[in-house]
Structure formats: structure tokens, C-alpha cells
Amino acid sequence: MIKSLAFLVTFLCSVTISAQNLQSPSQFLGYDLGTKFSRHHQVVDYFKHVESQKPLQVKLETYGKTNEGRTLMLAFVSSEENLKNLETIRTNNLKNAGLLEGNPSSNDVAIVWLSYNVHGNEASSTEAAMNTIYKLLTEKKEYLKNTVVIIDPCINPDGRDRYVNWYNETASLPYDIDQQASEHQEPWPSGRPNHYLFDLNRDWAWATQVESASRLKAYNKWMPHIHVDFHEQGINEPYYFAPAAEPFHEVISDWQRDFQTQIGKNHSKYFDAEGWLYFTRERFDLLYPSYGDTYPTYMGAIGMTYEQGGHGRAGLGILNDEGDVLTLVDRLTHHTVTGLSTVEISSKNAKKLNTEFAKFFDNSNLKYKSYVLQGHRDKINQLTKLLDKHDIKYGYGLNSKVSGYKYSTAAQGQMTTSSKDLIVSTNQPKGKMVKVLFEPNTKLSDSLTYDITAWSVPYAYGLDAIASKTPVQQTETGSIRIPASIVDPSPTGYVLTWNSLQDAQFLADLLKKGIKVRFTEKPFTAQGETFNRGSLIIVRGDNKKVSNFDAIVKDVASSHDRVYKAVSSGFSKSGPDFGSPDIKLVNPPKIAMLSGDYTSSLSYGELWHFFEQQLKYPVTSINTDDLSGTNLSKYNVLIMPNGYYGGLLNDNLMTKLKTWVRSGGKLIAIDGALNSFADKEGFGLKRNKPADASETDNEDAKRIKYADRERDYTKNLITGAIFKTDVDNTHPMAFGYDDNYFTLKLGSSSYSLLDGGYNVAYLGQNPKNVSGYAGKDALKRLDNSLVFGEQRMGSGSIIYLVDNVMFRSFWEHGKLFFVNSIFFVNNNLVEL
Fold first, then answer.
1. Residue 16: phi, psi to the nearest 5?
2. pLDDT tens across 716-727, in order?
3. Which of 31, 48, 242, 285 is most buried, with most CB under 10 Å away?
4. Entry pTM
5. Spans of the chain, pLDDT less than 50
6. CATH class in words for 591-823
7. Which architecture, in CATH terms, is 493-585?
8. pLDDT tens column, 409-448
9. Of 595, 594, 642, 589, residue with least CA distance to 618
10. Which CATH number applies to 23-360: 3.40.50.300, 3.40.630.10, 3.30.470.20, 3.40.190.10?
């Protein structure tokens, strides 16, 4: 007993002494906070120091690793009593929302989540994160009595270190405040995106990146009441905080709107006292669901963006256009103040936050009760993986008839369901998020928005769907199982259908293993089964030199969950035989892709990520600075990401590209890259000319008031709208598709149908958007316009992808057009 008491006294004394040794960020780092940019490992070390000195009030949790191996970390900060009961607080919160069964033992603790540095070159916020945790533990301890603060000091460590390393090696000493100085001119691709050059602030809902997917696991375990996403904006804007701008999504509650205003007023008293400028209710709306403010909002939180002037241009200090020197010290101080102010008002309203949080999860008033989805099993399975990331529940259908809004026709319709169909109900705690992701057409209170206005999941995943106003019966398990492959002990070959990206991954894997694969350009019937265009044929005779041919094919098929049919003869009952010219060998593509200046870093990153993490097929990146000296004959595919190539493609380079294409090369141009070829000699791509406005319209336009010009211009815009296109699915680019496809159109660029080329997907006369905003004048320009097409040039091809199927990597249904372009379109058998 005496030994135990002595140990306890020693322990308590050591804790007291330890707590007294808590260092400020400046003391720990060895420089005044804000006089240098801290590297990520230094930030991690500081948070570990805080935990070591305040173990009864701070708990660190690693929730993942970035692509470059950096730590993703959360700090849980609260009173000693709360930290001791942290798991109880967490489960009480989930019970309060109905996410766990049972009743909470109490619900009077506010949970505030502060997220910093989602954009790597908006680097002041991570410095503020260190300052904020220190001040909470030393100056604002009273806030923690009824509040758990969760701090993510850096959502994007790879991007942050890219920026910090560049700045630290570039900046003058002392720093140069001249805007034209090199330290204010960040090079391509900038520190904003992550390793794969994705904008992580647009990835919350889609979770395509490892940082997002890892974070969501932690987020959904906690479901905070408040979430703040700290950012930076241009150097001439001061500070932005809540309330947000219109449009607000219709699921957002009156309480969420009101408390945003209360928070903004709380911040304003501190800013007013210091004479700091700020603005609210402008620019940053609450609509698109994949932001760090909207996603939490649709999960019941008060989700907010805070924007400090500065961004990557500001460095340690810069002279803005108003003649003020904006420093890193200023920027991190402002972020510290709003962070602490957020915790303060949350603490004062902890019980109300819990009460209103619970109310948000009442979904009885939602219009649609169930969403029923039909389609290929691969597409269903892909969608369930997305739902699993958000802990959204789903089931499978029973044999019944369902009626409601039919997505494929944009009108009322019916569907007969089976156990293969997916059912997602809004009668679950996350029903409002279900509505947001699945709704056919988002309600817009204002056409001036910050991002795309359409993202409906059934269109994005290529699934036919019905939104039903009545609940649809479902079971927990369905028949989305892989049917058994049909085996023959010594087949002539193996045949597999072509429907999805998973089939493409299987093909890519076989090609990398040296297996020769064919595809059919015409349907055929073999051994009682009909195979459509694009079906893969793996013939034993093509692979005589592969000793373990059967084992490789079967192992690769098994690893990709592919179903094959072993056929005993190459003689088809109908359609081409295996030796027909219509059954072509897939020439393994040697792919190059442009990167660097003139390319959109985001578009390049989408493609880079796709090749490495999804298709898993090799691609060579060629910097645009090196294109003139590159030996293109080493490649048979060249990809031009979305970009702005006017300053790159001079006459010599254009001639070089034409010569390469004529010799058998395949050039794939995406989105903005098409501008380089439109209306140019030798290319079949022509811009659609806008309809001539009447004289009356022109006169009316001249009289539009200055204050109304921005809103009037929206008539010319398409802000991420969905259109139904016609598809020529006999063309190799469209193998695996039906005769129509729903495309996500990101802008109003319009090109005429190709004359002499192949118009693979296109919009006809008077096209209408089925979802999202499209201005009336922009719609007029889309009459008979190209979406995807191929133009032959000599032995080669130019492939035009007007709409970017890789945009943010979430439009799953479009990716096969891109894959088909690589493997199937104008597949040359002769090496370049």
C-alpha cells in the first residue's frame, strides 16, 4: 500500500512537472512562429511534444499515410475528465444521431473538428494549428470543459512540403515583398494538390485519394457538430468567414444557417476590435457535396470554410495592391483567432448543438424514400464501395415492380426489381446525404455557384435508376456474386465480355504478363453464348511460347474476379471466327503523356492517378519543355491532358505531331487541349459558331446595368451539367456502352460534328440538360455538337474527348471511353 501510494505521488508530481514544461511552438521549433515555414515532420514533432507534456488532455491518433509516406494525424484536445471518457463521448454522440443503437448517457459535450492545410500552398493554417493547440491548453482551458476539439494539423502533407521546400530554397533573406519576385511565382504544379495532383478539397464525397479515404474513416467514427476547413485566398482579399453564400442546399436546416451567422458574429467582435477587415455571405456557397464545408454539413455538422488572404503567392510577406505588407505572422494570427472563436461559441452552445444535431437526422420529410439501381454487377459493386466509405447502408431488391422518377428518361417510369438490384433508402440516419448524392436534379436557389451543379451518382456510375416516393422492400444480401467460369480442360481459347473498367484492368494485367489478347469488332456466337463488340479472346495459338498459358489466364481472371468461357473451337456459330480480320490483336500500347507548363496540373494528375492506381498500366510522362526534342517514335499513344497549349505548339511542333500521327500514332486530346486543333489546317475539328443574335438582343445587352452583368453572363455558362448523348456503339471507342451515355459537361465549349471522321458520342438538335445548370444561350450553341470523336490522319488517329471523363476521377461511367481509345481505336499492328 505504501509503495503504491509512493508511486502515485511520484506519478502525479511527474505529470505536474511535465505539464509545466509545455513549450510554445516558437520555443520548440527554435524560431518565432511565422518567420519560417515549418516542414511537416516539425509539425508532427511539435504535436508529439504537446501530447507528451499534456497526456491527460491530449491524445494523438495516426489515421493514415500519404502516397509519399507522411503521417496523417489527429489531435484530440479536451479537459482531463473528457479525455478520460473520450470513447463514451464518441458513442454517445453516435447514439444521439441514431448511428448507434441505444440512448446516450449524456449529450452535453460539443465536438469541434478543425481541419488545416487541405491545399498545400495555403500554408499559414498549419502554422496556426500549432498556435491554436498551444493556446487552448494554456489560455483557453475553460473552453475544453464541455468541448472535445479534434485538430487535423495538415490534411495535405505532400502538397505542403512541396510548397515549403520550394519556398525555403527560393526565398530571399530577408524575404522580398515585391509581387514580381521569384519567391511569389510558384512553379508548376504548385503545392496546392496532393501527390497525384488532386484537389483534396473537392474529394470529400468521392474519396478517390488515400488522404480522403483515410480521413473519412476517422470522421465517420466521430461525426462532429462543427467542422472548419481553413484556407487562403488571393493577396488582396482580407478574410472570409461564415455565414456562407447562396445557394444553400435545400437539406440544410434553419439551425445550421442560423448558427453559421452566430459564429460569424462571434468572429467579427475580435476582428473589429483589432481593425481587421473581413467579408461574409459571398462566393463560397454550400451546394457541391465534396467540399470540406458541404460534406460535413450534409452529415449534420455546421460546416464552414475560412479563407485568409495570402495563398502561395504571399510567402513570408508580400506587398498587396492596397499598399499593405501581408505577412505569415498576420495570416496565422487571424486563423488562430477564428479557430479559438469557433471553439468558444461551440462551448457556449454545447447542449443546443447536441439537440439540433439529433434533429438533423430525422429524414421523414424527404421526397424520395428509396433509390433503386440496376446495371452490370461491376458498376453496382463500384457504387457499394463508395457507399461503404461513407457508412451509408444499402440492400438488394426483391422480385417486384417499382415506379417513380426514371433517370434514363428523365420522366416517370417503372422498373421490375430482382436480387441483383441495389436499393438505397433515405430511411437511415444518413438519409440526407443519400438524397444529396442520388437526387436526379439539385434544386438551385441561385445560378451563381462556386462549382459544378450536377453529380448524380446513378449517372456517374452508368446505372439505370428509379427514385421512388414510397419505400422499396429490400434484403441485406443480393445475388451480386460472380458466376462460375465455364471450364474446358484443353480449350482453343478463353472469351470474356467487355463491360467495365474492371475488364480493362484484367486486359492490362494480361498484356503486362506477355499474354496476347484479341478483341472482336463484331458480335459472334460461340458454344451457345453471344458475345458483343469488344469481347476479349485469348487464343492458345497466339501464346504458343507461353508454357503456363492456362494457369496465367486463370490466375489473372481470378485476381480480377473475371468470368471467362473456355471455348473448344474458333469456329463461330454466327459472326466472325477467331481468325477473322474483324477479330483484332490488341497491340500493347506504348503510352506517353504531356506534363508540366501548359498542361492543367489537375488534369495531368487525374490521368497519372488513373494509370498508376486504377488501370495499373505503364505510362511515360514527357515534360512540355522537352517535347521538341522527344523521339515520339518510341510511343504509339500520346495523351494531351486538359490544358492551354497556345504558347507551346508552334509551327514546328505542330508539324512534328502531324507527321507522327500520319505514321500511325494515336493522339488523345482532352477538353481544353482541343483548342490547339480546332479550326486549324489539316484537322477536322471545327468550333460551333454561336447563333447570330438579333439586333434587338444586341441593343438589350448594351443596356444591362453594371451590377447585373455577372448574373446576366450566366446565360452563356454551363456549370457542370449532365446531358444525354447519342452513342455509336459500333465504334471501338464505345465498346461496352449502350446507344446513349450521360455526360458531365463542365463548360460551354462546342464543336461541330466531324466531317469525314467518326462522331462516337454527340448531342443532337435542341439538347437539354437533365441535371445541373446550363444557360439558355449556352444551350443554343450545343446543337449537333461533338462529345467524343475520332479523326483519321494517314495511318494514325486523333481522338477528341470534348468532355473530360477523368474529371476528379468520380465519373466512373466515362472511363471506358478513354480505355477503349487506348486499346481498341485504330489499333495498329505494326510497331512505329
1. -65, -45
2. 888 899 999 999
3. 242
4. 0.94
5. 1-18, 830-832
6. alpha beta
7. 2-Layer Sandwich (3.30)
8. 999 999 999 999 999 999 999 999 999 999 998 887 666 6
9. 589
10. 3.40.630.10
